[in-house]
């Protein structure tokens, strides 16, 4: 992920901000429900098509057609960015769903035709097509997410509201806002309230160069976190530790569903960081996740950590 990428990462204050007021309100309502179900925690990467993972996640000799099958043996979810570029035919999606277990979750990214080309205007037909295809995932479908362009600011809030209100109420969605104007001003409170009213999540992005998008605001009873790492720099592990503490606090207050997706600039060290996140979330949150069993710790030839 290039969004928020900077050169001098050592100058960044990586501390998580305090929770937004809305987070406490949403979690308070969840606590009042007294949901006895265990935490549903999902940790994964952004794609299974990683040849650099052969010998680490995928056994040597694994063919690309078998990457998803091997991926699902280690991870229980994926931030499915592939559909942002190209909506696949239904048989392809059905095949993907058949290769994973019932507890696996796909979190598809809504097509860039909708989010960036049309910018939500006159997008009903494309949206209906996308939602129709997503049903092919069956029970393996998690929340989809809509990433708005950095140029899509609060001056287009009415367009966003109109688009969101047109969606089927049973279509689970999280929205990633990127324009700086969405953060830190009272004028956009109506949009956050709209998310809460419709049960739409607000994606929390933890990336070095844009600390404003780390808004710590839950607008729905699930957390959708995009964590941008720095090639296993020591601060990556410190940041995951802090996330484990924060998620533990949210779980204590009633949160029952978490999606935590790890990004790295070349995606090479995502498995190691996911493994660490799984370990810490199990220890701090009682996530009950299966530990990742990597086949090798060696980086690909020619690569170093820093």
Helix content: 25-40%
Count, helices: 10
Q: How many distinct folded domains?
A: 1
Radius of gyration: 19 Å
- Major sheet description: 6 strands, parallel
Structural class: alpha/beta
What is the CA–CA distance across the termini? Answer: 18 Å
Second CATH tier, the architecture: Alpha-Beta Barrel
Task: Provide the CATH superfamily.
Answer: Protein of unknown function UPF0759
The averaged pLDDT comes out at 91
% residues in beta strands? 5-15%
What spatial form do the alpha-carbon principal axes imply?
A: globular
CATH class reads Alpha Beta
| CATH topology term | TIM Barrel
H/E topology pattern: HEHEHHEHHEHEHEEEHEH
Secondary structure: number of strands: 9
Could you explain the architecture of this structure?
- Helices cover 34% and strands 13% of the residues.
- With 306 residues, it is an alpha/beta fold.
- It has a single domain, classed as Protein of unknown function UPF0759 (TIM Barrel, Alpha-Beta Barrel), CATH 3.20.20.410.
- The strands form 2 sheets. The protein has a 6-stranded parallel beta sheet with strand order 3-2-1-9-8-7.
- Helix 9 (234-252) packs parallel to helix 10 (270-285).
- The chain is globular and about 55 Å long.
